[in-house]
Amino acid sequence: MSETSTFRKERDQRFKRDRRFKQIVSLFIFVSMGLVLGILWLGNATSNPFGAKYFLQMELVHAGGLKKDTPVTLAGIMVGNVSDLQLTDNNKIRVTLCLFKKYMEKIRDDSVVTLIKPYFGRASLDISLGSSETAVLQNNQLIQFDKTNDINDVFVQLPETLTHVDTILAHMKTFTEQLLDPDGHFQKGLLHADGALVDLSRMTNQVEKTALDGQKTLSDAQKTVQLAQPLAEQLRSLLEKGNQMAVDLAKVSEQLAKASPEIPVFVNHGRDVMQEAEALMHRVNHFVPLGLLDTKDGSDGRLTYTPRDLPMIQTPITP
Q1: Is 68 among the domain residues?
Q2: Range ranked top by mean pLDDT from 98-112, 157-171, 229-243, 264-278
Q3: Residue-wise DSSP of 84-152
């Protein structure tokens, strides 16, 4: 009996030790898993629980899929999340944004929050960068909001869009019928356009013919100019000679002008000498003894001639 009781005690103690060991191992495993899950959650969390934060407010007419922990980005960079949504007294939804304070300088009065609703996945909010000329939004201030159109908005606007499409199609049908009407303005306009095209073709042919004639005339004018160039050169040479003759005549005129006071004296003196010579020759020719001489040259007994008779003598001039 003593050995049996001793064996039972040892077995119970060993069972308790094994049970305690299993409990310790299970606790260690659960703690390790908790730590791993916590690390993963911190790594994928939309906000850092240990970072400094501040809050901004915005008001919406419709939440549009927003809820707590909806991510908030600044130009695509994760900067916080939605911390609260509440209905206001003026029947609007006030959304509170929890943001990292280190991005506070980038969010200013002209920054705008845009609701982004993709076709698949959850909605998000994106804040645009503010300009440096505007003031920085402080804690709990109101920020502007702008909503982009999503698939639900498209479905809501679809009936109105289809109505506009029906109206457009009806107008197109009416317009097509007017175009195909043989008595319509369009068909008549086409007939007039055909006539105008024919006239235009004729005018084009006339213009081409006129252009050819003009080219021929221009060619003839060029030939005339080429033929006139030698004449122009000769005329230029004659003009140069005429200019030279004018210069020479001017010089002669100048010399005659200088000698003109002496010319009348010489002329009067020569006239007196000619008159005396004529009288002398007249007495010689009519002297009687000399007139009886037999002359064989047909001079009528004259020994000589007076200056007035000299032009009448047909005597060949010896060069």
Answers
A1: yes
A2: 98-112
A3: EEEE-TTS-EEEEEEEEGGGGGG-BTT-EEEEE--SSS--EEEEPPPPTTSPBP-TTEE-EEEE---HH
Which candidate, 74, 20, 81, places its Cα nearest to that of 45?
81
30: which 2 tokens? 């659960």
Full residue range of the structural domain in which residue 164 is found? 151-180
Which residue would you say has higher pLDDT here, 78 or 159? 78
Show which of 100, 125, 148 is a domain's final residue: 148
With beta carbons less than 8 A apart as the criterion, state whether 120 and 35 touch. Answer: no
**pLDDT tens, residue by residue, 147-169:** 665 566 666 666 777 787 878 88
Decide: residue 59, CB within 10 A, 0-12 exposed, 13-18 middle, 19+ buried. middle
The full DSSP string for 247-263 is HHHHHHHHHHHHHTTTH
**Which run of H or E residues covers position 77?**
strand 77-87
Distant-in-sequence, close-in-space partners of 92: CB < 8 Å, separation ≥ 6? 59, 60, 61
Is residue 31 domain-shared with residue 98, that is, in the same domain? no
Assess if residue 319 is contained within a domain: no
pTM of the model: 0.37
Q: How far apart are CA 121 and CA 133, in angstroms?
A: 36
Distance in angstroms (rounded) separating the CA atoms of residues 111 and 127? 6
